[in-house]
Amino acid sequence: MAQYVPTLKHYCGDLPLVSTFYASSESMFGINTDDPLCKPEDTSYTLIPNLSYFEFIPTEGGNGDVVDLADVKLGCSYQLLVTNLWGLYRMRIGDIVKVTGFHNKAPTFRVIGRENTLLSIDTDRTNEEYLFKAINRAKLVLESSDLRLVAFTSYADISSSPGHYVIYWEVKAKEEDIKDLYEKTFLECCLVMEDTFDEEYMYCRSNEFIGPLEMRVVDDGTFDSLMNLSISKGASITHYKTPPCITSEEGLQVLETNVVARFFSTLRASHVLKP
């Protein structure tokens, strides 16, 4: 839910944003036993063992072996499995959580993203956490030009060689002609985003295994159309969230038919690697 924090801050002003518990429609998971007034992105939750039975699949190594709540390791990330107490259904929730500490002997977790939210062209692996960091840095550039990001998603385009990351943005502006008035701003956003990605991405860019990042600005209402498509396919309107990474051909078609401007990062491949 990290993508919604800036919007909440925009509308709430100086009001504190408090996340007191971690839950889904399947079960309550845990509570915030630390500082309730901490930043939303820093919030950790203590999973309560008598709410459901929790298991974890390590995201790195482990060969898919399941780990019990008592055996998780500090600093490690896991996929969350939950068996609720009502129907005894064992469910893969789809969240990736990271162990941040312990409350007494109970581990505390921070939600860092969603499973399978991954951009990859070569050996790069850009997860939801890095993607949100890049988006949030670029949003600061937008806001300096009185622009507001309405929604975004991403796509790993391998239709050409080398493949490259594509970021779809819907943006609100004071002026109608976004492309002509704000070209410099969007190009700077591309540079800022590329500079945020990890060393493996930088390595692939420097060796031209990955092409320059591309930003495609879409028309007003495009992401509403994307939501309507998902709902028409059976998605619940109450549970719908814009996917950070899109793979649906129909969804991509909705986005592509509404593209009003395209911008490519001007970062030279030979200068990508940081000193």
Description:
- This protein is α+β, with helices and mostly antiparallel strands and 275 residues long.
- The chain folds into two domains: 2-114, no CATH class; 118-271, no CATH class.
- The chain is built from seven helices and 14 strands.
- The chain has helices spanning 5-12, 128-144, 178-181, 183-196, 199-206, 222-232, 249-256; strands at 21-23, 28-31, 45-47, 53-58, 67-68, 77-83, 90-103, 106-114, 118-119, 126-127, 148-157, 164-172, 214-218, 259-264.
- The strands form three sheets. The protein has an eight-stranded antiparallel sheet, with no helix packed on it.
- α2 (128-144) runs antiparallel to α4 and α6 (222-232) runs antiparallel to α7 (249-256).
- The longest helix is centred in the middle third of the chain and has 17 residues, at 128-144.
- The chain starts with a helix and ends in an 11-residue tail after the last strand.
- Belongs to the IAA-amido conjugating enzyme family.
- Residues 45-114 form the GH3 middle domain.
- InterPro entries: GH3, GH3_C, GH3_M.
